[in-house]
Amino acid sequence: MQTVLDDDTWDACQDIRQRQRKLGMVCAVLLAVALLCLVDGLQGLMRSGATVLELLPEKSAALSGPLTIKNPVTKDIEVSFTPSNAPLSFTLEGFFAGYWFGNGMWRGIVAAQSEAEPGEYHMRVAFRGAAASTFQNYTVIVRADAVDMRTHSTSFAHRLTGFNPFALAVGFVGLALLVGVGVYRQGSMIIRTLVRLGCGEIVRVQQEKDGLRLWCLLYGSRPPYEGTVCAVMTTEGSVLAHARAGTAAKGSLQLFIPDHDRAQKEPAYTQDEISFAVRPGCLVCLRPPCSQSPPAPAS
After folding, report:
1. Which of 118, 156, 205, 273 has CA atoms 20 to 30 A from the CA of 199?
2. Is residue 3 predicted with pLDDT exceeding 80?
3. Looking at residues 20-34, what average pLDDT do you find?
4. Over the range 11-40, which residues count as b (16 or more CB within 10 Å of their CB) and which as e?
5. CA nearest 67: which of 108, 104, 107, 109?
6. Where are the alpha helices (DSSP H) in the chain?
7. Which pairs with CB-CB distance under 8 Å and at least 24 residues apart come from 9-14?
8. Which of 211, 206, 209, 229 is nearest to 279 (CA)?
9. How far apart are the C-alpha atoms of 113 and 115, rounded to whole Å?
10. What secondary structure letter does DSSP report for 107?
C-alpha cells in the first residue's frame, strides 16, 4: 500500500503520530504528578488536623468556623489564647453563609507578632450565651522560620520542594492543559493528513461468526459505495486484509471482512492473525489519495 500512497505525506503522518504519542505521555505524566501532589496535600491535612494552624512570625492565615448562635453580632464572638500573653492576634472579618449547606459561618485572620517565639499555643473561639460544649479549640504552632516549617511539614511534597502541594497540583494541571493543546493540534494535523491520504481510522472492531465487522471514521469525507473493496492497513502502511464497505451513518462507515475472503486474499496471514492484527487505530483506504498541488511555476 505504501507504493500507492505518497511517501512524503505518509512519512509526515507517522511523524505527527509519534509527536502526538510523546506529547500524550508527557500530559499523562503531568496529570499523574498533579494527582500525587493533591493526594499528598490531602493526607498532610488529615495528619495535621483541621484544627491545627502553622504560622511564621509576622505572618497570618485565614480561619473560619461554624456559628453556634443565631444572628450574631461582632461583640458576641469571644476569642482567647493560652497562655493569655500569647504573641498572637485575631481579627474578625465577618459572618457568611456556608458554601455547602448554607449554615452560618464566621471568618477571621490569625496573625503572629514579630516577636513571637516558636512554640505551640492554643486558641478558643466561643460565642456569648452558647454552651461550653460548642467552644471551638484550635492549636496554633509558630515556627522559627521557613526552613523549620518545611522540615516539620506533614506533606512530602512540601518537605521535598518547599512549595505548597496544592499549588504544585494546580501548576502541574496547568502545564498538562498546555501540553494537551499540543496533543489536540497534532490530532487535528493527523486528521487532515489522513483525509489527504484518503484513509479513515478504525474505532471499533467486532468479531462475528462469519467475519469481522469494522467501524471507521470518515472525517467528513464522502463514503465509498456499498460493496466497495477497501484495504485495511496498519499505521505503517502494511495491508492486513480487504473489507467491503457497508452503510455510513453519523460520520462513520461500517465494513465487513468475511472469513472466506480473508483466507483467499491474504494468504500470508491466518484468520486468527488477521483478527488479532485488525484493531482500533488501524486505517482503511477509502479512496485514492488526493493529488498534491503542483509546484508554483518558476518566474
Report:
1. 273
2. no
3. 95
4. ebbeebbebbeebbebbeebbebbebbbeb
5. 104
6. 7-48, 146-151, 156-161, 165-197, 259-265, 271-277
7. 9/193, 9/196, 9/197, 9/289, 9/292, 10/197, 10/237, 12/193, 13/190, 13/193, 13/194, 13/197, 14/235, 14/236
8. 206
9. 5
10. E
Q: Which of 197, 221, 208, 200 is nearest to 256 (CA)?
A: 208
The model's pLDDT over 209-227, given as tens digits with 9 standing for 90+, comes to 888 899 999 988 888 888 8
Helix axes 165-197, 7-48, angle to 10 degrees: 160
Residue type, 196: R
The whole-angstrom separation of Cα 42 and Cα 79 is 28
Q: Give the whole-angstrom CA distance, residue 85 versus residue 115.
A: 12
Neighbours of 208 (CB within 10 A): 11
Contact 99, 129 (CB under 8 A): no
Q: Which of 12, 129, 145 is nearest to 77 (CA)?
A: 129
Residue 44 has pLDDT above 70, yes or no: yes
User: Mean pLDDT of all residues in the chain?
Assistant: 84
Q: Note whether 8 and 193 are within 8 A (CB).
A: no
d(Cα 213, Cα 246) in Å, to the nearest integer? 10
Which residues, including other chains, have CB under 8 Å from residue 120's CB and lie 6 or more apart? Answer: 139, 140, 141, 142
The pTM (predicted TM-score) of the whole model is 0.69
